[in-house]
Amino acid sequence: MKSGIAIVTGASSGIGAQTAIRLANDFTGIVLVARRSELLEQTAGEVQGKGVTVHTIVADLHQPEAAEDIVRQTIDRFGRIDALVNIAGAVPQMNVLQMTDQQWDDSMQVKFHSARRLAVHAWPLLMQTSGSVIFVSGTAAENPKPNSAAIASINAAINALAKAFAEQGIQDGVRVNAVLPGPIWTDRRKAFLEKSAAASGADQEEVSQKLLAQFGIARYGEPLEVAELIAFLLSRQARFITGTAIRIDGGEVKGI
């Protein structure tokens, strides 16, 4: 039976959109947050098609006031928060020697600080509902490379942040977990492959297979697969799981 209200950031495409659509099976209301209004409305249409009440918020999470406004709108519309899923935050894939201070600061604002602020502002409401928070980071945190230094560093910081919130959550009755996707087949991944193929003069499929070999995996993951993991972690079946970082990467990082 559906119940509760979830907030999903980065809900206009990729993992965020698929997570919102998947959570429509479990929640009665979902707040969708993203910058791109047209794509956000497409996600909203699919979620509403599952009989769920939707509230969309077009927001720039770089702005410090955005988090408080998102929580306020959620309370005004639904009166409660049961789940917060922090997914938003596209970070440039650039060499560590090339990124500027401004690019580092912008990346931290949209990926790290937005998630931190949202968790802080939503926390009192999550305590009331014995709710749950998901921080989505990535496997780059555990396998940093020169060309992914920013996302690796920020993801590592998010994992540490999630651990701190989880410790607080044990006292306050709020579960907190981190999800670490590996190479997932999103529009951003496709654009990266197209750019790499054009730069090298190689066939896109050839570049794709070369990257899979470098990752040490058989295929790319699908956004829905990540969404299913998030849905499980928010469910009652996972009520004894907190303070955990779970990789979903096809074996890219071997942790056995």
From TrEMBL:
InterPro entries: KR_dom, NAD(P)-bd_dom_sf, SDR_fam
Segments forming domain Ketoreductase: 4-188
Cross-referenced Gene3D superfamilies: NAD(P)-binding Rossmann-like Domain
SUPFAM superfamilies the UniProt entry points to: NAD(P)-binding Rossmann-fold domains (SSF51735)
Cleavable signal peptide: none
Alphabetized PANTHER family for the sequence: EG:BACR7A4.14 PROTEIN-RELATED, ZGC:101858
Family: Belongs to the short-chain dehydrogenases/reductases (SDR) family.
Listed name of the protein: 3-oxoacyl-[acyl-carrier protein] reductase
Taxonomic lineage from the root: Bacteria, Pseudomonadati, Bacteroidota, Cytophagia, Cytophagales
